[in-house]
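// run 5 | inverse folding | seed 20
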């Protein structure tokens, strides 16, 4: 009997969001190394975690990489390392994934949202108005594989002496002005959750930094604040990167350039297929801004007329379209206590109404990509 992976690979009239079955169809190398790991019983912070961290730092373009338990912790731990806690405020983007807000809230600091611009990132023109004497950091989010405007955000952070911790969970290997996502601020956080650019077999995250003191603090914080076996320097957490996930991480981080190249190629094909459809508006493409600019298309996002009808049309034809995200965080019950009024973030609201995401991973065949394009064009009678 055909497995789901076979069916997905073979079927040009089904486009699923997740490429994981194909991603991990042939993993004998991982099992070989896992066997060695089990024999070594080196299950926490052993050799393999260090090897993975070196590979990740090289891929991400940073001096140091620190493996942690999740992308959420890869944001929380650097904030804690900066001493951020109750009474402080952290500025972030209004259109983001739940975990950005969750990581800030876990430190005890107040989440301060700022509206987005049409790059999907935080609007730099609105940041300064949100700064108060309590502001302790800015956490821009690089959404959907693109980047927030880090040139402007860095200027603002320097002017106000505010550290930047980048939420780069969706944008491994994206670049602005030749400088990779995650390497602009004092630290950047990445996720290896199954839905991100590179994925392991569960949860994992990575912090990158060029700052030796940030590196030291993050290593302390991820492991109970322990300086050594018997001395606890500060209060910390248990959020080590699992050695088992580090084995998977090594295998996949070695492939990241190809993964990203596949996504960029898929996005270019979609762009060409949609460019003459007036009901679809393509966001400004980073690559068109010049060399040294790269978006990695974790989600391929466009603005669409009659979005909800298009979404239903795609889903009825086995094209797994999604919306990232349909309900802005400031309208979620969990964050009502922040006191934002409806309409406080008009661009985020407009995005929530009009954006649609299509899968653009490296495992979709050109036949599947063309089927997806055809389904969208059919909806608009093009
Ligand atoms: C996935 C994600 C996170 C959190 O990552 P986890 O590994 O799921 O904890 C944080 N921010 C953004 C923007 C994300 O997409």
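// decoded
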């Amino acid at each position: 009997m055909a497995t789901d992976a076979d069916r997905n690979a073979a079927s040009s009239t089904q486009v699923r969001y997740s490429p994981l079955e194909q991603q991990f169809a042939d993993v004998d190398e991982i099992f070989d190394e896992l066997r060695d790991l089990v024999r070594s019983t080196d299950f926490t912070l052993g050799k393999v975690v260090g090897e993975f961290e070196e590979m990740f730092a090289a891929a991400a373009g940073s001096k140091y990489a620190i493996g942690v338990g999740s992308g959420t912790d890869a944001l929380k731990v650097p904030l804690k390392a900066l001493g951020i806690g109750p009474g402080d405020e952290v500025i972030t983007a209004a259109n983001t994934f739940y975990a950005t807000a969750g990581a800030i809230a876990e430190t005890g600091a107040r989440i301060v949202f700022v509206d987005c611009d049409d790059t999907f990132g935080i609007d730099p023109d609105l940041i300064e108005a949100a700064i108060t004497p309590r502001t302790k950091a800015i956490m821009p989010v690089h959404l959907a594989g693109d980047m927030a405007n880090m040139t402007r955000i860095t200027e603002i952070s320097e002017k106000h002496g505010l550290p930047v911790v980048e939420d780069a969970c969706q944008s491994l290997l994206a670049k602005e002005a030749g400088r990779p996502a995650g390497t602009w601020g004092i630290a950047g956080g990445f996720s290896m959750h199954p839905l991100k650019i590179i994925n392991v077999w569960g949860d994992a995250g990575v912090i990158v930094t060029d700052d030796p003191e940030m590196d030291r603090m993050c290593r302390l914080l991820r492991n109970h604040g322990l300086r050594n076996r018997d001395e606890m320097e500060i209060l910390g957490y248990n959020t080590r990167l699992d050695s088992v996930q580090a084995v998977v991480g090594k295998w996949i981080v070695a492939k990241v350039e190809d993964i990203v190249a596949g996504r960029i190629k898929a996005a270019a094909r979609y762009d060409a297929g949609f460019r003459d459809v007036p009901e679809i508006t393509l966001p400004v493409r980073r690559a068109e801004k010049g060399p040294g600019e790269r978006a990695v298309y974790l989600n391929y996002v466009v603005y669409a007329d009659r979005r909800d009808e298009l979404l239903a049309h795609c889903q009825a034809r086995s094209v797994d379209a999604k919306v990232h995200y349909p309900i802005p965080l400031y309208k979620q019950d969990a964050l009502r206590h922040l006191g934002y009024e409806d309409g406080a973030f008009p661009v985020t609201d407009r995005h929530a109404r009009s954006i649609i995401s299509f899968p653009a991973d490296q495992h979709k065949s050109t036949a599947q990509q063309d089927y997806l394009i055809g389904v969208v064009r059919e909806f608009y009678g093009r």
